[in-house]
Design goal:
Elements (H helix, E strand, L loop, with lengths): L5 H7 L11 H5 L9 E6 L3 H13 L3 E8 L2 H12 L15 E3 L3 H6 L6 E4 L6 H10 L3 E4 L7 H16 L4 E3 L7 H11 L6 E10 L13 H7 L5 H4 L2 H4 L2 H11 L5 E7 L14 E7 L5 E8 L6 E8 L3 E5 L2 E5 L4 E4 L4 H14 L8 H20 L3 E2 H6 L29
Parallel strand pairs: 1-2, 1-4, 2-3, 4-5, 5-6, 7-10
Antiparallel strand pairs: 7-11, 8-9, 8-15, 9-10, 11-12, 12-13, 13-14
Length: 425
C-alpha cells in the first residue's frame, strides 16, 4: 500500500488487483490445448468444490470439467454424479476413471495432468497452502477458495506462492465473492470517491445458527472423522471466525485500504460443548485497530435460537454505509441504495477466465486474501489466549497447526483453548 492512498485502493477494486500488463506470452494462456476449451480440475469435491465446478460451467460455455480429486472416494463419486447428471452440462463434464484421484496425494496426480488449465482448490482450508504451492509449481491458474490457511505458517506459504504465480504470469482469483459482486463494487467506488468522508469506525457481523455435523462412524479412524467433520477442528477449518467471518473482515480491509495493525478479542464455547463439535469456539468478538486509528468491532456466532445478522457497517466523517449479500446503502448528503447483483459466485469465474485468456489485466488475488485470512487468524489468536496481538506478531508467529503425519490413523484432538491459559505463540 506504500504508493496508494486508501481511496485509490478502494476504487481500483478487482481491476488492478495485480497491476501488471498483459504480456503476449500470457495472452496465449491456454497451454496444452488445440481448441478454445477451458479445462478445469477440481481438488476438493465437497459442497463448495462441487459448487465451484458448477459455477465455472455457468461462467463460460467453453469450460470443461476434466479431472477431480478428493480425499474420500464417496465424496468424489457424489460430486461427479451431481455434475455429470445435470442436463445442462451434457458433454462438458468428462472425467474418466483414470482422471479421478483419491487420497492425501490425489492433488499431485491431478496437477500432473498437462491438459488442465486451471484448478479449483476447495478442500478444508488447512490443505490450501499445500495445494496452492503445488498448483503454482505445476503452472496452473487457480481459483483459490477462502480462507487460504488456518495459521500464520500457512499464510506465509501462500504469500510466497503468490509471488511465484506473478513470476509465471498465472492468474489467481479468490473465493471472497464480495470483491466480485456488483453492489459491493459500486459501494466501494462511492466510498473511494468520499461519499461518507473518511471512515472512522466499522462494525461487521456473521451471526447465524449452527451448521451441519458429520457424526462419527465405528469404522472411522481419528483422522477420517476429523477430516469428514472438518468444520469443528481448528487445524482443518481455522475456526468459524476464519472459515466464514473472513468475508466480512475482507470487506472492511477493502474499505480501510489494508489489514489492521492490532486487535484484542474474546470468545468461547458455551453452547456447542459436545465432543462432536471438536475444539472450536461458538462465538467471537474482536476489536481491531487499523493504522489510521479507525476501529472495527467484529462479531461472529454460530448458535441456534439467537439473533442472526450478516453485514458490514461503516461510519464516516460525513455519513455511513451498510452492506450485505446483494444489498448496499449509503446514508449521507446524497443517499444511495442498490438492491441486487449478478451472481458473484459465477462472476468470479468469468473474471478468472478473462484473465487467463488475456482479455483483461491479469488477476492475482492470493496475497490480498491471505492478508484477510490472517486478519481472522489474529483475531482468533487473541480470543483463544486473551492477549492483544499485533499484525507483526501474527505474521511472524511460529504457530503451525499441521498434524505430524497425513495418514488414516490416530490423531489426538487438541484441547479447547482457555483464554488466559492458552499461550500466545
Amino acid at each position: 500500500m506504500n504508493d496508494w492512498t486508501r481511496r485509490d485502493a478502494i476504487k481500483t477494486g478487482i481491476v488492478t488487483a495485480a497491476g501488471i500488463a498483459v504480456s503476449p506470452t500470457f495472452a496465449a494462456g491456454l497451454r496444452g490445448s488445440n481448441d478454445d476449451a477451458i479445462r478445469v480440475g477440481v481438488i476438493g469435491c465437497g459442497g463448495r468444490g462441487t459448487g465451484a465446478a458448477w459455477n465455472a460451467l455457468e461462467a463460460d460455455p467453453s469450460v470443461r470439467i476434466v479431472a477431480m480429486a478428493d480425499l474420500f472416494p464417496d465424496r468424489l463419486q457424489s460430486a461427479h454424479e451431481h455434475l455429470s447428471g445435470e442436463a445442462d452440462w451434457v458433454g462438458r463434464v468428462d472425467v474418466p476413471p483414470e482422471k479421478r484421484f483419491t487420497g492425501f496425494d490425489a492433488y499431485k496426480q491431478l496437477l500432473a495432468l498437462k491438459d488442465v488449465h486451471y484448478v479449483c482448490l476447495a478442500t478444508p482450508p488447512h490443505f490450501r497452502p499445500i495445494h496452492f504451492e503445488a498448483a503454482v509449481r505445476a503452472g496452473k491458474h487457480v481459483f483459490l477458495e477462502k480462507p487460504v490457511a488456518v495459521d500464520p505458517a500457512g499464510i506465509r506459504r501462500v504469500i510466497e506462492a503468490a509471488k511465484s504465480a506473478d513470476e509465471q504470469s498465472l492468474s489467481v482469483v479468490a473465493g471472497t465473492q464480495r470483491r466480485h459482486q456488483d453492489n459491493y463494487l459500486e459501494l466501494m467506488k462511492r466510498l473511494g470517491d468520499g461519499a461518507i468522508g473518511e471512515p472512522v469506525s466499522a462494525r461487521c457481523f456473521w451471526n447465524q445458527g449452527g451448521l451441519w455435523v458429520h457424526e462419527r462412524q465405528e469404522s472411522y479412524t481419528d483422522m477420517e472423522w476429523q477430516c469428514r467433520n472438518w468444520l469443528y477442528f481448528c487445524w482443518l477449518s481455522g475456526d468459524h471466525i476464519t472459515e466464514q467471518h473472513v468475508h466480512n473482515l475482507d470487506a472492511i480491509n477493502w474499505v480501510m485500504g489494508g489489514p489492521p495493525a492490532k486487535c484484542v478479542g474474546m470468545g468461547g464455547r458455551q453452547v456447542r460443548t459436545d465432543a462432536k463439535y471438536g475444539n472450536i469456539f461458538d462465538h467471537f468478538a474482536v476489536d481491531y485497530e487499523y493504522p489510521s486509528g479507525a476501529h472495527l468491532m467484529s462479531m461472529c456466532r454460530q448458535t441456534d435460537g439467537c439473533e442472526s445478522h450478516v453485514a458490514e457497517h461503516i461510519q464516516g466523517t460525513k455519513g455511513r454505509s451498510t452492506s450485505w449479500h446483494g444489498y448496499s446503502r449509503i446514508e449521507a448528503a446524497d443517499n444511495w441504495e442498490m438492491n441486487g447483483s449478478a451472481n458473484p459466485y459465477v462472476t468470479e469465474h468469468e473474471q478468472l477466465i478473462r484473465s487467463i485468456r488475456g482479455e483483461s489485466p491479469r488477476l492475482n488475488e492470493a496475497k490480498r486474501v491471505a492478508e484477510s485470512t490472517l486478519t481472522a487468524i489474529m483475531g482468533r489468536m487473541s480470543a483463544y489466549t486473551g492477549k492483544a496481538v499485533t499484525w507483526e506478531q501474527a505474521m511472524n508467529s511460529k504457530l503451525d497447526l499441521s498434524p505430524a503425519a497425513y495418514a488414516m490413523g490416530s490423531l489426538v484432538t487438541d484441547p479447547v483453548p482457555t483464554p488466559g491459559r492458552t499461550p500466545l505463540i
